[in-house]
Amino acid sequence: MNIKTVRLWNEQTKEDVPAQFENPVGVANVATALFNPQFIYADLHNEDLQDFGTTKITGKLISSLTNDFIESQEFKALKDAHNAAFGKDGVNKYLGSTEEELGNRLSEQFGSSKVHFKFNFPVATDLFKKGTIDIEENGLRTDASNKGNGMQRALALAIIQLVAERTSKRQATFTRNAVFDR
User: Which UniProt keywords apply (predicted)?
Assistant: First the structure.
């Protein structure tokens, strides 16, 4: 081990491997394996707050709460509606002549070929990335990005506190033993 190495005690190794210290996350992710630092800059617009990607704090919160929704009947109905709208009887019937024209031109240039437009159902996390946060204040609902820096910082702090609280409750029964070696 060296100064860049953090090793965690793992008692749940495979049957033929004894319990051991290991680094399951790699050198680059040592710090985030132990804690998840979140910075709230007072002098910048808080675009990360409006970013619902799974690596951003708001995205982590939403992702942790929506796993059951992805398995629900409502989500299945959304997939079915997407397939109907973007299938052969949906948007593809409007694109048929363009597919044929492109196929003909491609065949002239490259040999016998056909072109088909395909619209796959998006990954669930991509759907959630399109979300926004509205804040209602005195009966008026406004996009959080249109609020002042103070409100945006307060919202960021509230989200971080909620994620930390929920994460600590979830991990209350899970412990890690870490060794820092120089």
Answer: Plasmid
